[in-house]
Structure formats: C-alpha cells, structure tokens
Amino acid sequence: MDALFLCLLPFLLYSLFSLFKLILQRRGQSCYMLAYECFMPPEDTKLDTESATKLALRNRKLRLEGLRFLLNTIVSSGIGENTYCPRTILQGREESPSLKDTYEEIDEIMFDTLDNLFKKTAISPSQIDILVVNMSLFSPAPSLTARIINRYKMRENVKAFNLAGMGCSASVIAIDVVQQLFKIHKNSVGIVVSFQDLGAHWYCGSDMKMMFSNCLFRSGGCSVMFTNKRSLKGRSILKLKHIERTQYSADDDAYNCCIYVEDEQGYLGHRVTKSLVKKSATQAFTVNLQATAVKILPVWEMVRFFFVSVRDSGMKKREMVAFFVGLILGKKKTNVNVLGGGLNLKTGIEHFCVHPGVRAVIDGIGKGFRLTEYDLEPSRMTLHRWGNTSSSGIWYVLGYMEAKKRLKKGDRILMISFGDGFKCNNCVWEVMRDLSDTNVWKDSIESYPPENLCSPFKDKTDFIIDEYLKLCEVGFYQDCSFGGVQPEGDVL
C-alpha cells in the first residue's frame, strides 16, 4: 500500500497543483466595473418642443405626408422635452457640417466623461492598460483611441482598439473585448468609451424610412472603467457574470432592416424597415436568450419551461430530447417561442436594463416576459429623458436604477442591447455593494417617473397640420408663429 501511495502521490500533487492554478487563473480573469460616467450635455443644446418643431419645419423637401409622419413619429416615440442635440443641427448647419464640427462634438463627450471618470476613481491615465472606443459612423485617422491617448499622454504600451459600425449594441461588444483581454493580461485596468456623433449624420432628405432616426437619436455618451486586479475588487460596483453575443447578419432581412445608405436624392441616413421590430429583433433576441437562459436561470425554472414548451408545441419524444440537449448546450435552434413560452427571467434576474432605443422594443420585451411597469420603468424613463443615445443608452438606464437606490448587494442585472446588422448582445452583472449615486440623473431624478408621459408635441402637431391644410386651401402662405418659417409651395 505504501508503494502504491508513493506512486500515486506525484499524480495527486500534480492534480492539486493544476486545480489550484486553475482557480487562481479564473480569479485573475474576473471583470469588475469600478465606475461609469455618462455625459451631461450643456443646457444650450437642449431640444425642447419649440426647437424640435423648428427642425421639422426647416426641411423644405418634406411634403404634407412626410411632415405628418415625422411629427406623428415624434409624438409616439416616448421622448420628452429635455433631450439634447448637437449645436451643428441647432444652428442649421446639418447639411454641410465641417470636420471641425464633428471633432468638437465628440471631444466634448469623450473628454468630459473621461475627466470625470479619472477624478472619481483616482486612477490616472498612465495606469490604463486597455482602451476600447466604440463609435459607429465616424472613423478618422488617427483613430479616436489615438486621440484619447494623445490628450492624456497614456503609456506607449496601452492596448488600444477602435470599433466602428457596431450600432447601438457596441458597448457590450467593447466590454467583451476587455473581458477577453483580461484573460491574457493580468492586473490590468481597462476603459470603454461609448458614444455616437449626430451632427455629421443627420438625415436631410424626405424618405420616410430614413427620417425615423432623426426622431429618436439624441446626444449622449459614457465612459466605463474595468479591472481584473484583486487589489481593486473592494472598490468595484459590479462584477461581470456572463456575456452572450448573437450576430444575425446572415439573414438578408435582418442585415437590411437598419442600414446606413444613400437615398434617391443623394442624402445619407439610416433606413429603418418594419422588420426591425417585427422580425429581426425578435429572432436575434430569441436565439440569444436561448443560449443565455441556461446560464443565468435556476435549474428548476429551465425544467418547468421545458415541459411547458413541449406541451404547447406538441413535440414527440425524440424531439423533446433533442430540444432539451440543445437548450443545455445553447446551440440547438428550435421553433419554440422563447418570448411567449412562459420563461420567467425573474427567477434569476432582479433588474432589467433594456436598451432605450425605441418604445416598441421595450413594450415587446415587457410583454414577452410579463415584466411589470416597475421592471420597464428605467428604460422608459431614460428614453423619455435622454432619447436614444445609441450604444451609451444602457448606461443611462443603469444610472436611473442607481439613482433610485434599486441596486442592492447581490442583485443581478440583465443588460439587453440591440444593434444594426442585426445583432443582439446581452450581459449579466452582479451588484457588489449597495449603490445610490445620483450620477447624471441628479438634476431630474426627483421628477421621475412623471404622472403623464404623453408627448407635448401632440397639440402642436395637430395645429401645424391643420394650419398647413388651411393655407394650402386658400392658396397663399404666411409667416407661421411657430419659428417664423415660410414654407415653399412644393412642401405640400
């Protein structure tokens, strides 16, 4: 027995050493969020009802049908009066923005959020090891990461990545890049900067499918700091538990449902089709959730959902086994309606951070998973207060949750983001300590949620359209009281 023990001892020690090494390696690969800073635009860029009305009427290419569509879309968008817009557009230079205008817009967002982030964390730019910037439509040379490195004089060995064309879900993609790098680079600190420039990409044509983006997108941005240093774990606010990315670009309808193109008149803009909400978003989210659910929900909920799905779909025994195995592996595609199949996400998630891109998507996710208005409130209020700020939108939603003191230690947050392509990228966070910072919401959190979310555009749009019809009938035009704009004959 002694001889056998001596023979097995090296294998036992090696196994223990390998296990211990694996544990240390896993601990070093953890991704913790230290802080985030959302951009608070200056007051002189606020887009209230009067300003938005002037913008709508300033487009001389619109006919009555297009004007009605534009104003009705604003009314039903879920956006309030306190969103923000680039100065280039407010000053009427959207058709011919300069490169200087674009740099001024993005510099204000990048450097303001980064300055506040460095100040809040007391971590200097020289301590940053990884830098990821995501901005879809503007990719200059030198890159935006190089612009940041130059401004803050960061080290020459900082790992810099510039992501473009990733749409509204780019922030989660950037986080995935940082997480993957953390597996290789120990004791590192990383930053993700997420924002979008609007001034240089405002649609100036009359195609109704392309005017949609003008009604939703507003100024905003965010910088987030991450680390895998064990010494900084105690200062972290969130821990990344899981990321799931789904790319649906192989489907032609999904690829073309939201695409940056040129219209017949030569104007560039985002063309959005009805299949975005009705098909592409649903399909991408279903595939994504199928892979995510088994990793974030308790076993008993997955078993319950399995039997309910089998009962409702009428599967045979062989199909039942294939479906169950595929669900566990996260790879099996099925015809089971995950959105409507009774999956209870609340068994594994306490908070839902839905991308505030469009009201229809928020409504659809809420209905599909039977989420309450309390669950959807952060996303609805963010859309109302800030509009669609592209990839940074989910951080404004997180800020609302924190400002309302909802986030308690141990809670889990599901971030749900969608982007053109079409893609769905989700991540799950665990709250490391009770959070209560009012952050970018400090000046408005007490007024949310308001008693009434009805758009103040409602009365004005009815008045504008009726007034235009009267003017058209009598055959002359007069100076309108809303903005002093004189419409031309071809507008109607």
From TrEMBL:
Domain FAE: 24-309
Keyword tags: Acyltransferase, Transferase
Ranges where the Beta-ketoacyl-[acyl-carrier-protein] synthase III C-terminal domain occurs: 349-430
Gene Ontology molecular function: fatty acid elongase activity
S-adenosyl-L-methionine as UniProt keyword: no
Entry-linked InterPro entries: 3-ktacl-CoA_syn, ACP_syn_III_C, FAE1_typ3_polyketide_synth, Thiolase-like
Cellular component GO terms held in the UniProt record: membrane
Pathway info: Lipid metabolism; fatty acid biosynthesis
EC number from the UniProt entry: 2.3.1.-
GO annotation (BP), single: fatty acid biosynthetic process
Enzyme class: transferase
Reactions catalysed: a very-long-chain acyl-CoA + malonyl-CoA + H(+) = a very-long-chain 3-oxoacyl-CoA + CO2 + CoA
CDD domains found in the cross-reference section: CHS_like (cd00831)
Family: Belongs to the thiolase-like superfamily. Chalcone/stilbene synthases family.
Name under which the protein is recorded: 3-ketoacyl-CoA synthase
UniProt organism field: Vigna mungo (Black gram)
